[in-house]
C-alpha cells in the first residue's frame, strides 16, 4: 500500500496533551511501539504532556524504559489533543476506545491487513511492514533517537517477527534492526529475557498443550486448547500462553495451527497461524477478528468442538481453493 508519509511532529506540534495507546492484551510489538513513541515524543516535544495507557503489560517488558509510567487505570485528566492508536484499530483499544472517541485528533499507526485504511483522522497503515514498531521508527526524526528508544523499537520488531523467523521479516526489517543495534544495547539478553525464557508454569502449559494437541485434515491442521480449569490451576494469564501457537505451527506437515483458550463460559480466544498458503486473516475476519495473512486471532462462542468445526470449514474452503488453483496451473 502506498501512502504519503505523515509528519509525526507536525501532527503533534501544538498538542498540550498527547495520549498513546494500543490493543487489549498488549504484545511485544504493542508495548515496544507505545513506549518507543512515548520516549520519542517526550524528547522531541518537551512542552507537551505525553502519557501511555495500556492494559497491564507482562513483567518481562520492564526492561524497556518508561515501563513504570504506563497507566493501566486509563485515568485521563483534561482534553486529549492528540490520541495515537498503535498496532490496532479502535475496536481493540479496550478502555481507551472512549478516550479515542473524545480526542481532538486521532492518529492511527498499524500494520494489520484487517485494518484496511486506519481508523484515525490521520492514518499511517502499511501492511507490508513486519510490525508497528518498524512503522513507528520510520516516522521518527533521527536527531531524537537514542539507545532506549532503539531498544523499545527493537523489542517490537523481534516479537512480531518471532526473532526474524516469520515471513513478515523483510530485507528492510533486517536493515532497520541493524541500524537499531548500532545504538548499542544488549540485544541477545533482551531476546532471551523477553522472548525465550519461560517460567515453570509456562513450560507446563506448553507441555500440556502439545501433549493434548490433535492433528486433522490429513495432518495439515493442528489444534489444541486450554480450558479455564487448567488456567486457574496454574493461575495463568494470557501472556503465559505466548509461544504455544508457534510451537504447534512448526509441526512437520502442518499448514495451519489453531490454539485456543477458554475466556468464559462457551467462549474461546482463538489464535491462528499458517505456513505457506492459508490466509488466516480471512478466517479470523470471518469470525469478527483480524490480524495478518500468517498470524491472526478472534474470539468465538461455542463448545470446543463447535469452534474447531466452524474454523475448520473456513480453512478447508481455502485449502480446496488452493488445490483447485494448483490443478489448473498443472493443466
Ligand atoms: P494472537 O494469536 O492473538 O497473538 O494474534 C495474532 C495476530 O492477530 C496479532 O497481530 C494480533 O494483533 C492480531 N489479532 C488477534 N486477535 C485479533 C482481533 N480480534 N482483531 C484483530 N486482530 C487480531
Ligand atoms: Mn500486536
Ligand atoms: Mn503488530
Structure description:
The chain has 12 helices and 11 strands. The protein is 39% helix and 18% strand. The longest helix has 27 residues. 41% of the residues are buried. Helix 2 runs parallel beside helix 4 and helix 2 runs antiparallel to helix 5. It is an alpha/beta fold and 331 residues long. It has a 6-stranded mixed sheet, with helices on both faces. A 5-stranded parallel sheet has the order 2-1-3-4-5. The radius of gyration is 20 Å and the shape is globular. It binds adenosine monophosphate and manganese (II) ion (2 copies). One manganese (II) ion binds next to loops. Adenosine monophosphate binds next to strand 10 and strand 11.
Structure summary:
The chain has twelve helices and eleven strands. It has helices spanning 8-12, 28-44, 97-102, 132-139, 147-160, 171-181, 187-196, 200-211, 228-233, 244-249, 280-286, 304-330, and strands at 17-22, 49-53, 82-86, 105-110, 122-125, 214-216, 221-226, 256-264, 267-274, 290-291, 295-301. The strands form two sheets. It has a six-stranded mixed sheet with strand order 6-7-8-9-11-10, sandwiched between helices. It has a five-stranded parallel sheet with strand order 2-1-3-4-5.
Amino acid at each position: 500500500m502506498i501512502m504519503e508519509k505523515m509528519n509525526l511532529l507536525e501532527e503533534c506540534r501544538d498538542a498540550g496533551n498527547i495520549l498513546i495507546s494500543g490493543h487489549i492484551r498488549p504484545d511485544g510489538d504493542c508495548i515496544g511501539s507505545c513506549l518507543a513513541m512515548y520516549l520519542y515524543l517526550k524528547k522531541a516535544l518537551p512542552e507537551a504532556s505525553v502519557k501511555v495507557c495500556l492494559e497491564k503489560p507482562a513483567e518481562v517488558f520492564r526492561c524497556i524504559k518508561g515501563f513504570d509510567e504506563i497507566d493501566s487505570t486509563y485515568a485521563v485528566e483534561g482534553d486529549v489533543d492528540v490520541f495515537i492508536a498503535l498496532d490496532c484499530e479502535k475496536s481493540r483499544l479496550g478502555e481507551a476506545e472512549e478516550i479515542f472517541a473524545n480526542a481532538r485528533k486521532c492518529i492511527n499507526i498499524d500494520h494489520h491487513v484487517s485494518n484496511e485504511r486506519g481508523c484515525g483522522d490521520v492514518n499511517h497503515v502499511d501492511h507490508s511492514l513486519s510490525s508497528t514498531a518498524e512503522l513507528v521508527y520510520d516516522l521518527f526524526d533521527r536527531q531524537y533517537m537514542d539507545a532506549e528508544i532503539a531498544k523499545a523499537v527493537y523489542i517490537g520488531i523481534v516479537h512480531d517477527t518471532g526473532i526474524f523467523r516469520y515471513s513478515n521479516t523483510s530485507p528492510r526489517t533486517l536493515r532497520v534492526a541493524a541500524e537499531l543495534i548500532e545504538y548499542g544495547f544488549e540485544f541477545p539478553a533482551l531476546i532471551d529475557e523477553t522472548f525465550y525464557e519461560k517460567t515453570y508454569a509456562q513450560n507446563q502449559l506448553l507441555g500440556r498443550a502439545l501433549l493434548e494437541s490433535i492433528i486433522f485434515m490429513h495432518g495439515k491442521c493442528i489444534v489444541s486448547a486450554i480450558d479455564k480449569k487448567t488456567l486457574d490451576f496454574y493461575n495463568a494469564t494470557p501472556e503465559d500462553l505466548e509461544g504455544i501457537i508457534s510451537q504447534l505451527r512448526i509441526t512437520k506437515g502442518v499448514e495451519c495451527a489453531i490454539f485456543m483458550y477458554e475466556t468464559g463460559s462457551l467462549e474461546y480466544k482463538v489464535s491462528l497461524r499458517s505456513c505457506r498458503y492459508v490466509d488466516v486473516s480471512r478466517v479470523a475476519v470471518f469470525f469478527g477478528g483480524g490480524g495478518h495473512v500468517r498470524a491472526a486471532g478472534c474470539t468465538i462462542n461455542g463448545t470446543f468442538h463447535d469452534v474447531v468445526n466452524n474454523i475448520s470449514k473456513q480453512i478447508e474452503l481455502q485449502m480446496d481453493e488452493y488445490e483447485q488453483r494448483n490443478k489448473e496451473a498443472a493443466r
